[in-house]
Amino acid sequence: MKLNKIYSAILLSTLPLSAVQAAGLDRSGQSISAFLQPGNYAEAGISILDPKVQSNQLKVNDMAEDYYFPSAAIKVQATEHISIGLLYDQPFGAESLYPSNNPVFGANGEATQVEVETHNLSALIGYQPTENWNFYVGPVYQTVQGTVSLRGLAYGGASKLGSYDINLKEDEAYGWLAGFAYQIPEIALKTAITYRSEIKHELDTTETFGFGAIQRPNALTEVVTPQSVNIDFQTGVAANTLAFANIRWAHWDQFAVTPKFLNAASGNNLIDYSDDQWSATVGVGRKFNSHWSGSASVGYDSGAGNPVTTLGPTEGYWSVGLGGQYSPAENYFIQAGVKYFWLGDAHAQTGGNIVGEFTDNYALGYGLKIGYRF
Questions:
Q1: φ, ψ at 25 (rounded to 5°)
Q2: Domain residue limits at 54
Q3: CB of 311 within 8 A of CB of 352?
Q4: Element (H, E) at 201
Q5: I need a surface site. Which of 119, 135, 190, 205 has the fewest CB within 10 A?
Q6: Is 301:331 a contact under the CB 8 Å cutoff?
């Protein structure tokens, strides 16, 4: 079961089948696996999620939009004991669009919809006092922006919030991350614990009511993206075979977006969650020959509470995934993966009132990545 560094690095690359998450606003999972690769390393990837979220009760066939997001990373072993890295991802987001001809979520030919987009750039410096230990820390630059439109009887119709729009202009802010890793390369054992701080944003906000007739600009809305902890583990379990696991905690409990004028008009939040989110993935990776490797995994996510907002009416998931990797040479590879998600049923609410239940939801996730060692 003794593995050399090149072999263990190639096999390790098969483990993240796809960066796609599918619970709440969590998207990328905020992995730092690229920074823990041996030597000098760079990668670029893209992930796609194709969800279906429906409610027979409310006659909604599908309100979840497909979305894709890229990721990239570079890590340089500057000296025997010092490494530096730069990681890019889009950790949180949402994209939903209800049918405009459904009176519960549509009016005047317009529909309830949401788009939230974030970008993260993490800079890391690592110190390796020995071959086994790696301590790392660094700043995180993050941007957030979003737009939401509420339409239909679910929000009280045009006389209340059923004609409300909000534009949250892009804001930039900073946080930090820190962690440590321990490894025994000869048996492909590696474990890492990474903490990311919350990041507080103050977004310039314009709110409009009555299909744009009443405009309320020049306000600030606070959005705090959650602190989180990722625990990653892998070990060789047999010749050419690795077992791996990831556990993630994200502090969504008490998360709320509370625009000034919406709150004054209704006393409610635009988006809120009631529980912290826990997720876990376990699986195995196997090298078939010098060019081909594969992996399989099972995943679970608790979600962030139920009932949930109508802007994302699912609670957690179970998933299964398969991944494959082709390595034409020892220094680069092409990887692809697919995941199927059974999205949890949820009661959707607005203003503390349950509108209806969304059931039999699912999603397909796809990932493609290219990695290069230099």
A1: -95, 0
A2: 5-373
A3: no
A4: strand 199-209
A5: 135
A6: no
